[in-house]
Each structure stands twice: as structure tokens, then as C-alpha cells.
Amino acid sequence: MIDSLSLAVWDTDRRRGNSLKERLEMFSEREAALYLGEWDGGIRHDVFFLSFNECGSPVVKVARSVRLTGENVFLLLISERGRDVTPFFRPTIRPNGVLFHPVKNAELRDMLEEVVSEIDRLAQDGEVAAFVLKSEGVSYRIPFRDILFFEASNKKVQLHTAGQQIEYYDSIENLTGSLPEGFVRCHRGYLVNTSHIEEMRGADMELKLTGGYRIPLSRSYKDAVKQAIVG
Questions:
Q1: Cα 79 vs. chain centroid, distance in angstroms?
Q2: Rounded to whole angstroms, how far apart are CA atoms 149 and 5?
Q3: Averaged in consecutive runs of 10 residues, what is the pLDDT profile of the chain (231 residues)?
Q4: Which is deepest, 76, 102, 162, 198, by most CB within 10 Å?
Q5: For the packed helices 14-24 and 105-124, what is the interaxial angle rounded to 10 degrees?
Q6: Strand order across the beta sheet in which 47-51 lies
């Protein structure tokens, strides 16, 4: 299950950040992302380790940006012992756990296993429904709420979120009718999550989505999309 998670490390110390990244990859087949002092907030990760020496406003700002990428992102702090981490415990950040340097491999493994257990619990309670797929031997678990649209690509399908594009073997025909309420076919080659539709442009026959994405709208599916938006 850990292999299905998108992991990331943020740190201002290159050597420590690389060490954390490499150790996380011991528990997952997927490569972990590493951000060294920079974070544009454009990519959503399932688990985000925020490593720091001093709890200054720049670090708090990064933590807040991470939380904005998703309510269900697991934000884990890694601080020096004795540092005050209370600035992170506010409604706009809400960290999910705290570790202290130097972090042991067993601590990282235990934290990841606890994250997996919590994801399973939330899924069973129906709080975080997700789409599960496999691409190039790696399993992904993408919350339905984060999916913008599906796009046909030859004999494959591309799943699009605000920060990811994952291609895997499937078809739009197979997906149609198998997704939860809120997903509707808008074109021969597209399925859209109606909760991300910002504007329906009938004259241009296109849909404007969250994040500025634009996808085609077919006349044959226009009424179905309109009905799905209205509910």
C-alpha cells in the first residue's frame, strides 16, 4: 500500500534532504520528490515530510501551502529537538504528526504504516473515496475529489489532477458508468469531474476547469453535462 502513495520531502539542508528521500524510497517502489527550500504549491503529494532547523515564517508559509493542496494530505513535521513547533498547530496548517532529528528508519517506516492504516480507515468510513490504478508496475490511489478529468490516449487513458498526469491501460468506454456520481462524459475522448467545472462555454464547445484547464465539449454530450452540473 505504501507503493501507492506519493511521497515528498522538503528541507533546506541538501544532504539531510537527500538522505530522507533515499530512506523513504527504501519503503516504496516509487521515487520520492525532494524540494530544497523551494515549493511552488503546484503538485499534490499524499505524504509530505517538512524538515527544518528553525521554525520561521518561511517554513510556516510552506506548511500552509502544502495544506492548501489538499485536506487529506498527510503533513508530517521533522524538527530539531527542543524547537517550538506550536506555530504549525493552527487551523490553516493542521500537521498530522511530528518527528525529531535525527530520524531513525524505523520511525519513518512506522509513520508511513500508520498513514496507510489511517487511509484504510477513512476509506472504510467513506470519508476518502479513491480511484486505484496501476501504471508501469506502480500502484496509485487518487482521491476522486482530486481528479479533474480522464483523457483517452491511443489504447491508454490519462488521469489528470492539478499536479499529476498518470497514463495507464484502460478506455473511456470502460470508465463510463463505473465512476461515482459527478463524473460525466463530455466528449468521445474525455470524462470530466463536474465538481471542477468552472464554466461551460457552449459557443466554443469547451469546458473551463479548476486551474485553468480547458477540455472539449461534444454537442452529443452537452445536455448530459448540463444536467450533471445542475444535479
A1: 24
A2: 20
A3: 82 96 91 86 83 91 87 92 93 95 96 88 69 81 88 94 87 90 94 93 85 92 89 66
A4: 76
A5: 60
A6: 33-36, 7-11, 47-51, 74-80, 97-101
CB-hemisphere CA count at 13 Å for 130? 20
To which residue does cell 512506522 refer?
110
d(CA 138, CA 128): 21
Give yes or no for a contact between 199 and 207, defined as CB atoms under 8 angstroms apart: yes
Residue 120 is predicted with a pLDDT of 76
pLDDT value of position 47: 93
pLDDT at 116: 86
Mapped onto helix, strand or coil, the DSSP state of residue 231 is: coil
Residue 21's region, left for phi above 0, alpha for psi from -120 to 50, else beta, is alpha
Residue 22's pLDDT is: 96
| Positive or negative torsion for Cα 181, 182, 186, 188 | negative
Could you tell me if residue 151 is left (phi over 0), alpha (psi between -120 and 50 degrees) or otherwise beta? beta
Q: Which domains does the chain carry?
A: 2-124 (3.40.50.2300), 130-230 (2.40.50.1020)
Most distant CA pair in the chain, distance: 63
Query: What's the Rg (C-alpha) of the chain?
Result: 20
The size of the chain, in residues, is 231
Output DSSP code: residue 34: E
At 168, list the grid cell. Answer: 495507464
C-alpha cell, 117:
492504516
